[in-house]
Amino acid sequence: MKFEITPGVDWVGKIDWELRKFHGEEYSTHRGSSYNAYLVRDEKTALIDTVWSPFAKEFVNNLDKEIDLNQIDYVIANHAEMDHSGALPFLMHRIPDKPVYCTANGLKSLKGHYHKDWNFQVVKTGDKLSLGKKELIFVEAMMLHWPDSMMEYLTGDAILFSNDAFGQHIATEHMFNDLVDQSELFEEATKYYANILTPFSPLVTKKINEVVAFNLPVNFICPSHGVIWRDNPLQIAQKYLQWAADYQENQISIIYDTMWDGTRMLAEHIARGIKQADDKVTVKLFNISRRDINDVVTEVFKSKAILLGSPTINKGILNAMSALIEMITGLKFKKKKAAAFGCYGWSGESVKILTDHLSKAGFEMIGDGFKAMWQPGDEALAQALAFGKDFAGKV
Length: 395
Hints:
Blueprint: E1 3-6, E2 9-11, E3 14-16, E4 21-22, E5 27-28, E6 33-35, E7 38-41, E8 45-48, H1 56-66, E9 74-76, H2 82-85, H3 88-94, E10 99-102, H4 104-114, E11 119-122, E12 128-130, E13 135-140, E14 150-154, E15 159-163, H5 182-197, H6 201-213, E16 220-223, H7 235-244, E17 251-256, H8 262-277, E18 282-287, H9 293-302, E19 305-309, H10 319-331, E20 337-344, H11 350-360, E21 364-365, E22 370-373, H12 378-394
Parallel strand pairs: 8-9, 9-10, 10-11, 15-16, 17-18, 17-19, 19-20, 20-21, 20-22
Antiparallel strand pairs: 1-2, 2-7, 3-6, 4-5, 7-8, 12-13, 13-14, 14-15
Helix pairs in contact: 5-9, 6-7, 8-12
């Protein structure tokens, strides 16, 4: 499958309708995804990126129907992660002498993945590759989201090939942003940023401002996953700047796990207390053992404060909560407040464990948390309600 973006620029990637887990099992893709590759034809022809390795043969065979592979003059590898470079070995077996353009870190990554000594050409920000009437200008994008990442700007057509930046995991036959459901588009774009790019927010801001300073027109932003931005394409860059600025909405998320419903009961009463104290704040509850962890992380990203709850088991916390803690610690959220709560039978360590983890993850802690012994009765539930009110007042 291919379609035209502008005369001389075609999408030649792969739509993966069936994908439901990405990065192994680390990222949920409820709406599938795409692996976007682009063919740019002028006096010379450049192929920008490939697709994930399970689709390598299909990709190269389809590409061969579109163009004699020997007519590809340049292969550009924006990022060595295998969802973008996975078809390179199969392609380069057919055209072994063609130059492969990448960053210095890309050279290390590609050799590390594939152990091949292809005709690598290392580029840096500002380097240009003439295609004839048009040029590709290379822009390094280190840590967005790997050390090897880069983008290109195509003069004439004013297209930014942005690799992983500005992408979303969506499988759709309508490959332009103005043709898809806008709520789904921005839901997936937000989730993508929250779960992948949040740790690199300072670099996001720096890189976007650097690209904007070039003062170049942008008619299209072509990412490596999801739809192409053609209607007001810079709107997604503006969103990234908002998201990179310690983003939060007027939302408090309560995330818990529970064994015999005691911690759930506390969560619900804490929520009522928050709403009684502040009826304008959005309060959301999530049982982490029954919800998708990436969706919950997205809600943490949107929240100005969170509360984590777990009963005590074996002097620790439940497994699903441990996984969440691990994720939010790595994502390095900033300027968010938090507290912990939970039930216990005889030892009661869970609240302190959660409090310590949240503090180490960079959250501003509101008090020492709240815990209730055994199944909470009327008195404990009233205390949970008061705890919620107090938390809302301090947030």
